[in-house]
Structure formats: C-alpha cells, structure tokens
User: Fold Putative 2-aminoethylphosphonate ABC transporter ATP-binding protein from Szabonella alba.
Amino acid sequence: MTDRTPAAQPYLEIRNLWKAFGDFVALRDIDLDIHPGEFVCFLGPSGCGKTTLLRAIAGLDPQSRGTIRQGGKDISTLPASGRDYGIVFQSYALFPNLTVERNIAFGLENTGRPKAEIKARVAELLALVGLPEQGQKYPAQLSGGQQQRIALARAIAISPGLLLLDEPLSALDAKVRVHLRHEIKELQRKLGVTTIMVTHDQEEALSMADRIVVMNHGVIEQVGTPTEIYRHPATLFVADFIGETNHFDAQVQSGRVQMAGLDLAAVTGGHAPGSAVRVAIRPEDILPMASDAPEAENRLAAQVADMEFLGSYWRAHLKVGEVALVANFSMNAVRRFDIRSGAAQLVEIPAERVLVFRGASA
Assistant:
C-alpha cells in the first residue's frame, strides 16, 4: 500500500521493501513516503513488522530487497555507520561507566570537534532536555524518565537528518510516559527533525504523530493523520486496533445495513445491495437522546443493562432487542438524561458513524 504523496519532495522514500528471515516474510512490499520535519509513528501489535521496518531504515537489519532513499540519496546498501540518523532504544543503552556529559559527548567526540565546541554543545543539549544540573551524574543516579531524556539528547547531539525512536517510553510508568511524550513532541517541533517512532500504544501514536502508519502481519494497513485513522479507518483491523468498537455481521440493503434485530441507515460506499459486511460502531458514537427529541434516522430504544464508572465518563452496556451495545457517555450526559442501570434510554447512531467493511472474512 502507498500513502498519499503531497507535492513536497519526500525526505525518506521506501519502495517495494521486503524482509525475510528464512521462510518467514516479516515485511511485504512496503511503499512509504515520509516528508521533511514530519513526526511519523509506526503502530501495530507485537510481531507486525514495525520494529523490523525501523531497523531496515537504520541499516541495523537490512532489507532482503527494495530501496530506501534519504534526502534524495540511495542508502539501501549503506551500513548503519554510513547513514544519517540518531536512534533511541527502549533500553536507553546509556554507557553506565560514563557521566551524563560523556554519554552525550560520545558521538561528538568521534567527529573530531574541538573540546570547547563539544562542551558547549553538551551544555546546550542538557538545557534543551531540562537537565542542566545533571551532567556530572552517572546514569544509575537518574530516574528512568531522566535517562530517557539523556538518551534523546545523545541521539540529537550530532544534528542528524533523521531521528529514530524504538518504543522509547514503554519502560516508564504511565504518568511519566504522558509527560515525556509531550516533551518529546515539543522538542521535535523545535528542532524540526524528521522523526519516526515505533509504538504499540494507540494513545501514544494518536497524541504525538503527524501521521500514523498502521501495520499488521508485515504490511501497511493504512497511512493517515490521527484523525483520519480514527474516524475513517480503511479496514476492520484498523477500526478494531485503534480505539474500541461494537461490531456485527450484517447485510447491505440500499443505503442501510441489516443485522439481527437492527436496521440502520449507513454510508455503505461501494458495497453492493445483498453483500455481506462487517459493521463497526464506536462506543462514543452512540448518543443519548431525550424522550421528546425530534425523530432521528437511527433512533433506538435501548435498555441500560449496567453501567461502569471510568473516571471521566461512564461505560453503559445497552440492550436493543437482542443486540448488545457498549456506549461511552460523558458525565454531563449521564446527569442530563438521568441514565442509570435498569432504565430505558433512547439513543441515536449517526448514519455516517456506522462503519461498514467487507464481510466477516476481513
């Protein structure tokens, strides 16, 4: 699959890239363009090929066939040492026997720069990642979040054209992850460096990426902005992997989908009447209605089986006839409509939010 190609010349061009380990094909016919200054996330479940693709770009695990061009230059056969990138691993990979300053300076020292220039650059980077007083400490004396910032400073020390991040936040606790992902994104914007991050965390990708590359079984399922990926998933896998869905087998009938006990107006696209489809409905797209509200296209009389309080919203388990639906209602909606377990509740599902995919075999 090829992503849309804007007018600007791509910074990274990947064409017909395959990677096999013996008989196992880890990447299959990958075509992808990444543009200057973009923050792109490779997202997918374990074993989908996202880290393999990152390592192929880095030259750490070269592709079996296909080409990679960076800044107009073919780097397909260059060794990792000959490529222009900085990389941050999940494990940080800091040198435990070197101070923070020496860790950051390591790559700079190999370029033969004057000591005064290196010292100034290290001080600049420590200030940039918010750790100006930590230069004389050793990695073991820092928290996980601080170590990750130092790894990031080391990766950008030589001003690489490409920054590669391999699940950089997965070893940190939830609060630190949320804080650091904001800091990394702000730093990337400030530097303007083209960045690729591998993650299996949907929230991380949605909050950080300019575009997301969703991968599954070694192929690209969809490329798009976070909004496009979430609101307009191209496949059932994308709809199910990113966010939550109710989904059912159904049949298309002239602008509608019919399933056991439900008949809904929907945007059926190119699906012919009579064809078997899979329908997906996100919990937040089930909207509560007042009993005296005007008629709506997909207005349903539901029974609230039970409710779960999840902090910022309530999750309601609904029954519409024999069909079970999960809906997410805001705190305000629950108060306004007096939604409670055991009560009847009218809901609406906008036709454009009924996602229709090819049949159950998908």
User: Anything to note?
Assistant: Residues 1-7 have pLDDT under 50 and may be disordered. Residues 174-191 form the longest helix (18 residues). The first strand starts at residue 12 and ends at 21. The chain has two domains: 12-240, 244-358.
